[in-house]
Amino acid sequence: MSDSATFDPTKRAEVFFQKDLLRVKIIASYWAVVLCAIPLWWYTTSITRLPLPTSRVSALEWTDSFKFPVDLVVSRTAGDAPVSEAELERTIQRRTQLDSARWGALDVRIHSNNLQNRSDVFSLAFNSNPAGAAHILGDDTLSVSSATYTLPQIVDTLGELLSPYASLKHEADGQRVAKYSPKYRLSFTLLNEDVSSIGYRSWEIEQSIYQYLEPTLNQLRALHDFEIESHVQFYAPLAFQPERVQVSQNHGYWALGQEETAIFVNSAEWTLSSSASNDPVLHFILFIPSSQHRPMHVMTAQGSAANSNAFIIPQWGGIVVYNPERTTPQDVLDTRTLLPIFRTFHTQLQLLLGVPPAPKGTYHIPASNIPRTAPLTRWQLAALLRARTLENARSASEALRSIVALVAQIGHLPVKEDVRALVRAALDDLDAMRDAADLHRAFSSARDAATRASAAFFDPGMLAMLYFPAEHTYAVYTPLFAPVGVPLIVSVIREIKRIRKERAEERKRKEKGKARMEGERREE
Amino acid sequence: MKWLIPVCLFGAACAAAERFDERLVLTALPDGNVLGHWTFTTTLGHDLSHAQHYTLFPLGLGQTLNVHGASELHLALNAGQWDYKLWGSPPEPSVASGAELWTWIRASNTTQADERWVGLRNALAGVFCASLGSLDDQRTTTPALSFKPSVQLPLGKHQLRHATLPAEHVCTENLTPFIKLLPCKASAGLAALLNPHVLFSAPFHGLSVHYTHGVLKLAVQAVFTPPRQDWSLNTLLDRSIAAACTVASSSILSFVAAGTQLDPQPSTEVNGALQYDLASATFPFEVTVRHPVNTISSHRRTSPSVSLRRTMTGSAQYAGGLLVQLENARNETVRVSYLETLPWFVTLYLHTLEIRVNDDPRRRIDLLERLSYVPPRAPAPTTLEPILRLPPLSRVTMRFQLERAFMLYTQFPPDAQRGWDLPPAILTVLPASTSTHSERVYGKTLLADLPTPDFSMPYNVALMTLMLCGYWFSEVFRIITRKFVVEPA
Fold it and tell me: Which residue stretches belong to region Disordered (chain A) (predicted)?
């Protein structure tokens, strides 16, 4: 195309140093650099999103339908038992189908002979007591009277012992019981409304806890660690005025109804909580009203004075109101006076921690007569362990599923190695729980799974990129990429247009040439 | 478990040994102001142990001190400037403006001590609603000579941590949790007189917390301006005591002002101070102070023997100097320890240290007995602690040069143009013998002007560079890919 010898400026010719092919090569090389740089830019600005084991997480529905194996031995010491194992098994299976809320999480296996070397076996015995009450002998034997107990009644009692939560009251129970935590702080407060009128300066708290609560706490240490603290408050005014009920001429009392119990705790003026650690606190308050507000009674929902003069605030703690006659400044609340109060605290503690009560009509006969033996039977502990294990397993699987859904949904959420390690460890713990040999190991695996899943969900590293708006990215990239990108794109478009135009002209010329040649041939 | 019974009984006996004393001392100062000093002392009877059962001792504070291993703790929150000449030595020696926290932490090594220090100051920030969490590495020092434990520390290795936050304000949100630590709170006893409106409009006011070996002392000191020459508790503090604190073992109100008439008559007189015992008083309790005609009685408190004055010299932003003037008013040689803490970006040149006496032009390095110098290591600050021997009745001037570094733009504090508050210098008069106490004198807080960059520069630089890059690219690209066409002439 170039002709250096004869350069005719009048012809609309190309300039000699210009080559179309060279220009195309230059543009192509710029584009090659840009295309090679794109992976480098992508790699350096990407967020670490390590892949999570989503297939294992999506297979976690088994936690909703997990069954605990329970071994029950029917002991035949008193000759012929009125009920055979086969009948018992059939009845239980029918019950499982009918009442899956209660029996759905249990896999009851009946054995006839004593399983040696197993410590977590429950046994069913029969006695010939005509009176009819059922007894729990020792720790693990349910002894029913063969005369009065029919098969459905036996299965009912067994159901209440093995799974006391799955009933219509479960929803209320679930909201009253505090969420599982490996460590609890139990805070005991002696709250005097006005110590100058009526009140106690000190109480024998350590001795009372040791005598009344230690046995149960020792048994519950399999589930939680407890840290106990106590203090005395001397001026703790109420934030409201309780209602005065006049019974007779010179006798009346102050009433705490349902609404007043909801606003009883005056958090603004009472110093109850402390900021030393993050463990949940269960408060147990002994409230002594002042002489203006005494005697003070807690009303039941029906409107009568409650016997225990106490109430529970769900998931928070319990309050007992005590009305002493008169006090002197030297008085100390001694252990004997604190006995009924601590019995109430004991019940409140059991209710708050979810310890199931013994079913109606059953009496506990302890194995030995030594005082301060374990007050809870193994039936109750096992039922509590099962319930907490299920709670932990479900919360762990929910947390893991939420993590996977969140990571999938938010594109720029980073997932680092520690989060992935925690997720993997939580999944391993859940598998260990499923294959666990006994209940205690299943419980500890579920607890570890719940802790790890929660740690992974609330990992602070995941939040770092959440608040990085896209506008900042555009604001930084546009001043460079716009002046660079526009010429590149425009030049490519121009080249394409030029090539198309040349090809069109080439074709026209060829056609003209062909037509001329044909015309010449016809002339010949 | 049988061993628990004697432990529990011991614990119960110990709980019975807790006692609470409260005291208020009102002093009429020579310039017409009234100094009020409240002390609330709770004695545990034994050291903090793991059994957390208290009656009078506050549970929240006890747990915090126990968990973080603080064997001795001193916290002061002050506002205002204490005038040593007019008002004498303060009853609570820590009068530095802002927050000052120092503690002896039980720890086996420095890492554990640092961890416990972080936990302790954050926990105290929660208890007192003060931003003590910002007493971070840039402000924490370990002075070797100035802060000794007041009582024998319990067994175990201890480390000292000291930090100041001069810009911290004191207000009602600090007073309310402070009062909540008391057994009687604000309903009874002397704490009922703490009126936040009057207290926080006083020329000087401060709260302090001291814990040493089982004794917790909460103190409030304030200098009030009485509205009239004859004043009463009601007109001065706008409060009166409604009831006595019955759990207090002793509750005493004392007046130090010779020659005034007090109504009602005080019950006792101790060392020139007229005292009322609130346990045997009638309530509501009210005291009126009357001065006899044409006389103003006041009590001149003893001033500390050494006074301190510190100024920044130099007008350049990057370099300057510090000039410290120590005046010895006693007629004998006094040994003092001077503590200066500078942040890491203010470089102190130790070789420029000059000491002169009165107007003598000679350099008196012989007055410097000992020097403890911890050089800065970002972010840890500089700690300079010389021990000087001040000649009798003299004025000793100490000078040294400083240079202020130009920091990275991310290292500046928020509101960087204000500058950095240099913590007040602390002068400790070392006792001649071991029996007398050392007294501490605090200087003023200085503001170090930091050379600040233009904080919008990173964005300017980014935009300008990108613009130039874009322009250069488009020029080169245009030239090498342009199509030249020859037009006929």
Answer: 503-524
The two three-digit tokens of residue A211, written as one number: 């005598």
Cα atoms found within 13 Å of the Cα of residue A509, Cβ hemisphere only: 6
- Structure tokens belonging to residue A21: 């092919």
- The CA-atom distances, in angstroms, between B337 and each of A127, B30, B83, B164 are 87, 30, 21, 18
CA pair distance B123, B133, nearest whole angstrom: 8
B143/B258 same-domain check: yes
Question: What is the residue-wise DSSP string for B72-124?
Answer: EEEEEEEES---HHHH-S-SSS---SEEEEEEEEE-SSHHHHHHHHHHHHHHH
CB-defined contacts A:B, below 8 A: 128
Tokens 């555009």 locate to A474
B60 Cβ neighbours under 8 A, 6+ residues apart: A271, A273, A274, A275, A276, B127, B181
Whether residues B314 and B395 fall in one domain: yes
Answer yes or no: is B88 within a domain. Answer: yes
Asked if residues B88 and B307 have their Cβ atoms less than 8 Å apart, the reply is no
Residue of A nearest to B18 (CA): A202
Instruction: Summarize pLDDT for A466-519 with one digit per residue, the tens.
Output: 566 677 777 777 878 888 888 899 999 999 998 999 999 999 999 999 989 888
How far apart (Å, rounded) are the C-alpha atoms in residues A60 and A433? 12
Residues B67 and B188 in one domain: yes
Q: Does B240 share its domain with B365?
A: no
Question: What does the angle CA B10 – CA B14 – CA B18 come to, to the nearest 5 degrees?
Answer: 170
Q: What is the pLDDT of residues B182-195, one digit of tens each?
A: 998 888 889 999 99
Do B201 and B225 form a contact (C-beta atoms < 8 A)? no
pLDDT in tens, A376-396: 888 888 888 888 888 899 899
User: Which residues 226-245 of A have a C-beta within 8 angstroms of B?
Assistant: 227-232, 234-235, 237
Q: Does residue B237 share a domain with residue B313? A: no
Domain that holds residue B379: 306-411+418-448
Please give the Cα distance from A80 to A83 (Å, whole number). 8
Under a CB-based contact definition with an 8 Å cutoff, are residues A320 and A203 in contact?
no
- Structural domains of chain B, count: 2
B335 located within any domain = yes
* Residue B278 DSSP label: G
Taking the C-alpha atoms of residue A44 and residue A475, their distance in angstroms, rounded to an integer, is 18
Give me the residue from B4, B56, B486 closest to A9, CB to CB: B486
Three-class SS state of B254? strand
Nearest-angstrom CA–CA distance, B429 and B149: 16
pLDDT per position as a tens digit, A40-95:
988 887 777 888 888 888 888 888 788 888 888 877 665 566 677 788 888 888 88
Cβ-Cβ contacts under 8 Å for A240 (sequence gap 6 or more): A260, A263
Q: Are residues B277 and B342 in the same domain?
A: no
**In this structure, how many other beta carbons lie within 10 angstroms of the beta carbon of residue B428?**
23
Q: Do B486 and A15 touch (CB under 8 A)?
A: yes
Residues of B in contact with A269 (CB under 8 A): 185
Query: What is the model's pTM?
Result: 0.84
B384 plus B243 within the same structural domain: no
**Does residue B4 form part of some domain?**
no
* Residues A226-254 as b or e (16 or more Cβ within 10 Å = b): bbbbbbbbbbbebeeebeeeeeeeeeebb
Question: Could you tell me the residue ranges of all domains in chain A?
Answer: 69-172+366-380, 177-353
- Could you give the CA distance from residue B72 to residue A100 in angstroms, rounded to a whole number? 61
Using alpha carbons, select from A392, A454, A460 the residue that is nearest to residue A422. A454
Would you tell me how many other CB atoms lie within 10 Å of the CB of residue A77? 9
Residue at B263 is within a domain: yes
Residues 431-450, chain A, touching B (beta carbon < 8 A): none
How many CA atoms does the CB half-sphere of A205 hold within 13 Å? 27
Say yes or no: B269 and B321 in one domain: no
Closest residue on chain B to A19 (Cα) = B483
